[in-house]
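Re: the multi-chain job from yesterday

Posting the exact lines I submitted so nobody has to dig through the queue logs.
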Amino acid sequence: MTKLQQAILEILKNSKDHFTAEDVFWALKPQFPKLALGTVYRNLNYFSDQKMIRRVYRADAPDFYEWNTKPHDHAVCIKCGVTSDLFVPDLKDFLKSQILCDIVSFDLNISYICPECSGKNFETEEE
Amino acid sequence: MTKLQQAILEILKNSKDHFTAEDVFWALKPQFPKLALGTVYRNLNYFSDQKMIRRVYRADAPDFYEWNTKPHDHAVCIKCGVTSDLFVPDLKDFLKSQILCDIVSFDLNISYICPECSGKNFETEEE
DNA sequence: TTCACTGCAAAAAGTTTGCACTGAG
DNA sequence: CTCAGTGCAAACTTTTTGCAGTGAA
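And the result, structure tokens for all chains:
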């Protein structure tokens, strides 16, 4: 494991944020001035292939990568734009009960108004 | 509404399939030999802006367009690759009850083994 | 010396856009 | 004559890849 690879993993490990390849690239650029974006992609994809991190495919925005590899969903606040991890308990069982099929996996993305932006004090189940 | 625009809508209207812009392009090419892919995109996007059809953004595959504008989800069979419309009853209420937040919208995509491929006779709630 | 890792640049894939043209009204 | 709709080609965004160089063991 090279210094660069360690540094890439450290960035993800030390934050609950969701990083695009470019985020990681710019975060490391001061420390690795010759760093290339392609190299960042290559390493991030290698790590996610190894299940060390999770890659989240997105449709109309760059994919992001996160440290949290446990199953969870994502919620994007339509006010502040922040993406949060979100775990919906019993969702798989609920889906199975409703559609009566063998579910292999599923991907849920929620648009919502986060507690901070709603001004109210809702609690979210987070993981 | 031009002949081309009518023809594009007809293709979506007459099928429950999910069409990429290229699907539509090739379906119309015989009838409109000079047709350009960009024009197909422009019209499909115009129609979806007008809520006449629905555009479904996809992460690692071309977006598709469908006639069904009613809220529903999608399930992709991992065996045969077919995408089906799927309506999960009461899902929004279930999500609200679990995460206690104001949900604006959500997007659910399921990977599963469809009834035909599983060899069993499961019934799916479809819309 | 070796070879995994890297930088660089080009390519790939999907989609959008600028511009000139054309044809129906 | 006008101008909405079109074809064409180039641009754009995100991501991947081929290739040559390089640096640690």
